[in-house]
Design a protein that fits this description.
CATH class of the largest domain: Mainly Alpha
Distance between the termini: 47 Å
Helix content: 55-70%
Strand order of the largest sheet: 5-4-3-6-7
CATH topology of the largest domain: Amino acid/polyamine transporter I
Oligomer: single chain
Order of helices and strands: HHHHHHHHEEHHHHHHHHHEHEHEHEHHE
Strand content: 5-15%
Structural class: alpha/beta
CATH architecture of the largest domain: Up-down Bundle
Shape: elongated
Number of strands: 7
Length: 548
């Protein structure tokens, strides 16, 4: 799936309902991921006042993320890339410090029967979430050299992404787990509340185990001072990493909800954007769901118990859809391997549903509400479509169609970027009339949604956008009255400045007119000023007029 191999796009080829079920399972996973990552991050930071009020501290942090993401995920999303190198270095140092102390002295042969061992195995299946994350990124990966437009491939780039995840899951998790089991369970260790046995300490520090391991083995290798310092380094790095993971889950949930609404699987209100291009209702849901789950559980162990059923269910749907999709160009052994993986994950999902009733109740609530919203959307879609069809029928007339035909022989070309009904539009009409020029009215809909799941189906229509419709319809009407050839141009983009520059160069305009920006200082700081960005990159052959 070069256009995004997440569960929603992979399952959609097998059926719309299956795709929605997979997406809702992923929403359940992302909800718990955001809550769990925020809680774990604060635990790794290990500030006493935060740990005493961990529930409300996590809620406050999630609300702060919501405020930042209200301005779009562009700046918050780059934070994860910055943390990649420090995290790798810390993990490698942690493995290097623990390696000399690895021992099998405290290991015992399992005493449980095979059924109990299977349940324990199911409990540690959580590391698979990295696979779904890589699958969602294939839509924005660099194409392979031998790929074509009709048969795009990202096998080489996706392999570069998935192998580090696989090595970390198989090797890193095994070594760090072995390091934890190499600690003497009967030894005495001092914690902030007094002396405890190592077995008790591991239970008490279960929320920041890697920091505890770093402190213990750092002390054994280089002394108590190094152990405490290294523990703080591990805590700070993993605090920021887990906070970034929570933010990534929130951004992914916003994108997933928006994409389902775009495909008419969720109510149309989910596609309404704020002035920064962020879907209003999805961002409230993406923040509200984790907050509700945290407040309702108020316990780390209970919160962790909700996690696996969502991600395993989503990956099961994803892998099963790929395995049974005969149209995918897949070798037989790959298809068989995916089929075997699907069977194993399906059994894991059934086991989770049987052994974790709270998780089953949680995921059933998400599925129930989501499918109810889908049923309501499908029921109302006929009426919605009828209303849109009438609006389009009323707007389109022979007069308007004739006015959109270019009459370039009469003069130059002027482009005006519209953000609202502002004085710059009147000025552009005056200039076009005086110069006998063609006027291109550009409206760029800013969409700040990051979710690699394929291109938007169909062509974007300005008639379906209420804000663009109001502006462009008015300009067409005024152009007809003043005998000015007005051409409406509508685009959807996450970078309005770059889109306006591209359109200006493509159409070969002589003048580009823009109104002055009225954004607040905080908004300009977070998202940048469109006028400034255009002025810095506009070719010398196009004259820029800033009207204010």
């Amino acid at each position: 799936f070069p256009d995004g191999g997440g569960v929603y796009s992979a399952a959609r080829s097998q059926g719309r309902l299956l795709a929605v079920v997979g997406a809702l399972l992923l929403i359940a996973d992302l909800t718990v991921t955001a809550a769990l990552s925020g809680w774990s991050g604060l635990s790794y930071f290990n500030i006493p006042i935060l740990k005493e009020h961990i529930v409300w501290a996590t809620v406050g942090m999630l609300l702060a993320m919501g405020v930042i993401n209200w301005y779009g995920p562009k700046h918050s999303g780059s934070f994860a890339v910055t943390l990649a190198l420090p995290t790798v270095i810390v993990v490698l140092v942690l493995i290097a410090i623990t390696a000399p102390h690895l021992t099998t002295h405290y290991l015992e042969r399992p005493h449980e029967n095979p059924a109990q061992l299977w349940v324990q195995f199911v409990g540690v299946i959580l590391a698979l979430s990295g696979v779904e994350a890589i699958a969602n990124l294939t839509g924005v990966m660099k194409l392979d050299p031998d790929s074509t437009t009709h048969h795009p491939k990202v096998a080489r780039e996706s392999a570069k992404a998935i192998w580090p995840v696989a090595v970390e899951v198989v090797v890193g998790t095994a070594l760090l787990g072995w390091a934890m089991l190499s600690l003497n369970p009967n030894a005495t260790v001092m914690l902030s509340d007094g002396a405890h046995s190592m077995r008790e300490a591991l239970h008490l520090r279960s929320e920041d185990t890697l920091r505890f391991i770093g402190e213990q083995f750092g002390t054994r290798s280089f002394g108590a001072l190094f152990g405490q310092a290294f523990g703080w380094i591990v805590g700070i790095v993993f605090f920021f990493l887990l906070v970034s993971a929570a933010n990534t889950a929130i951004v992914a949930m916003i994108g997933l909800l928006y994409m389902m609404a775009r495909d008419h699987e969720m109510p149309p209100v989910f596609t309404q954007l704020n002035r920064h291009g962020v879907p209003r209702l999805p961002i409230l849901i993406a923040i509200g769901l984790p907050v509700i789950v945290i407040v309702a559980t108020a316990n780390f162990t209970a919160l962790a118990g909700l996690y696996a059923i969502g991600v395993v269910g989503a990956i099961t749907v994803n892998v099963g859809s790929c395995s049974f999709n005969r149209t995918l160009p897949m070798k037989l052994h790959d298809r068989v391997l995916l089929g075997i993986t699907f069977v194993i994950l399906f059994l894991v999902e059934i086991t989770l549903a049987h052994t974790k009733p709270d998780a089953l109740f949680f995921v059933c609530c998400v599925l129930g509400v989501g499918l109810a919203l889908r049923a309501y959307t499908l029921k109302r879609s006929g009426i919605t479509t009828l209303i849109v069809t009438r609006q389009v029928a009323e707007m389109v007339s022979p007069t308007l169609a004739a006015s959109m035909q270019p009459r370039l022989e009469e003069g130059q070309r002027i482009m005006v970027a519209a953000r609202g009904i502002t004085p710059v539009l009147s000025y552009a009409l005056d200039e076009a009339q005086l110069r006998k020029a063609s006027l291109y009215v550009v409206f760029v809909k800013e969409i700040a949604v990051y979710y690699g799941a394929g291109p938007i189906r169909g062509r974007a229509r300005w008639q379906d956008d209420s804000e663009a419709n109001a502006i462009l319809s008015l300009m067409l009407k005024l152009g007809c009255e003043r005998d000015i050839p007005v051409m409406p141009v509508y685009a959807m983009s996450d970078d309005p400045a770059a889109t306006i520059l591209d359109l200006a160069a493509t159409l070969g305009v002589d003048f580009l007119m823009i109104g002055t920006s009225h954004r607040l200082t905080l908004t300009n700081l977070l998202r940048g000023n469109v006028v400034t960005n255009i002025a810095a990159q506009l070719p010398d052959t196009i004259r820029l007029i800033i009207y204010g």
